[in-house]
Amino acid sequence: MISFKVDNLINMHGELKAFTDFLRTSGVCDDDIFASKLISCELLTNVIRHGGDEAQFTGAVIADGIVITVSAESLKNVDIRGEMPDVFSESGRGFYIVKNMCRGEIERGPHGEVKVFLKRQ
């Protein structure tokens, strides 16, 4: 498992590099590493850029997948359904991307955190 807190995009990229290295050493295939990084980047960017908040991140490899959890005050009231956004909208695609990349479930945790279950290929 890997865990970190981040409140800016520059540090986010370094922490995501550590996460992808962790996945690689855990035997995760390149396609799942790419999907995990994209999902993580979307969730963390939403918190930092749109919420102006600090994000707590946890990533773990489980038997049949990868679990990514992001906690932040600004996520507590965000719609996580990931419905198709307006194609002309300048934002609002993050959860749609997450939903379509995860091949699994997106849940709201008991404290407002967002938990994504990525099924491994």
DSSP, total strands: 5
- Molecular shape: globular
Helix and strand content put the structural class at: alpha+beta
Major sheet summary line: 5 strands, antiparallel
Strand share of the residues?
15-25%
Major β-sheet strand ordering: 1-2-3-5-4
Mean pLDDT equals 89
Q: What is the domain total for the residues?
A: 1
Which class in CATH terms? Alpha Beta
- Please report the distance between the alpha carbons of the first and last residues: 20 Å
Count of individual helical segments? 3
In the predicted model, the low-confidence regions spanning at least 5 consecutive residues are: none
Characterize the structure shown:
The chain is an alpha+beta fold and 121 residues long. The chain has a single domain, classed as Heat Shock Protein 90 (2-Layer Sandwich). Helices cover 40% and strands 24% of the residues. It has three helices and five strands; from the N terminus they run βααββαββ. Strands 1-2-3-5-4 form a five-stranded antiparallel beta sheet, covered by helices on one side. A hairpin with a 5-residue loop joins strand 4 and strand 5. It is globular, with a radius of gyration of 13 Å.
